[in-house]
Amino acid sequence: xxxxxxxxxxxxxxxxxxxxxxxxxxxxxxSTSMGWYRQALGNARxxxxxxxxxxxxxxYGDSVKGRFTISRDNAKKMVYLQMNSLEPEDTAVYYxxxxxxNLPRSWGQGTQVTVSS
Length: 117
Hints:
Layout: E1 2-7, E2 10-13, E3 18-26, E4 31-39, E5 47-53, E6 58-60, E7 68-73, E8 78-83, E9 92-100, E10 106-107, E11 111-116
Parallel strand pairs: 2-11
Antiparallel strand pairs: 1-3, 3-8, 4-5, 4-9, 5-6, 7-8, 9-10, 9-11
């Protein structure tokens, strides 16, 4: 079983920055991808924010390109999300995930990010 714990969320003014961290532990055998999704209040869907493969290839949602940067430390089993130029529309619960070969996706419990205008 995989356990993911997010941290770094909070309240920030528009234009500010936050750095989210996600620590993975447990039965991690062969991670293929890690990343972040977010879910705004009242939205039933989780939207992709950023993903990063084991080899470092990244992918970003259109609304965060140029503002957010994802990185990972495979040795520490950590993934990070540096969020700059935050906007009120970025307000959401941010969830970390990990994908492994032949296993279902695992999710963290989420961390709240609130951007005030």
